[in-house]
Amino acid sequence: MGSVPLGHIRFEMPAGCGRKARAVEQEVRAQRVMLPDRQGGELEVPCLIASEVNAPAGRWSGACWPTGWHPRCRTQ
Fold first, then answer.
1. Domain count of the chain?
2. What is the pLDDT of residue 62?
């Protein structure tokens, strides 16, 4: 990712779904992304990206999904 890291967060991921509990460190970045609007165009929006530092190898090591949307980002 091309943006400069804003910071790091650390937390304990609880055990579940066949995995052991473990400490997680994520790097947080911000970048602007283009999303399709509902009128055939595109809308530029800010996006926060949290990616795990030194993620263990496995099926989720490259996973990416939205963590949520801020209510003020809704279109009316």
1. 1
2. 60
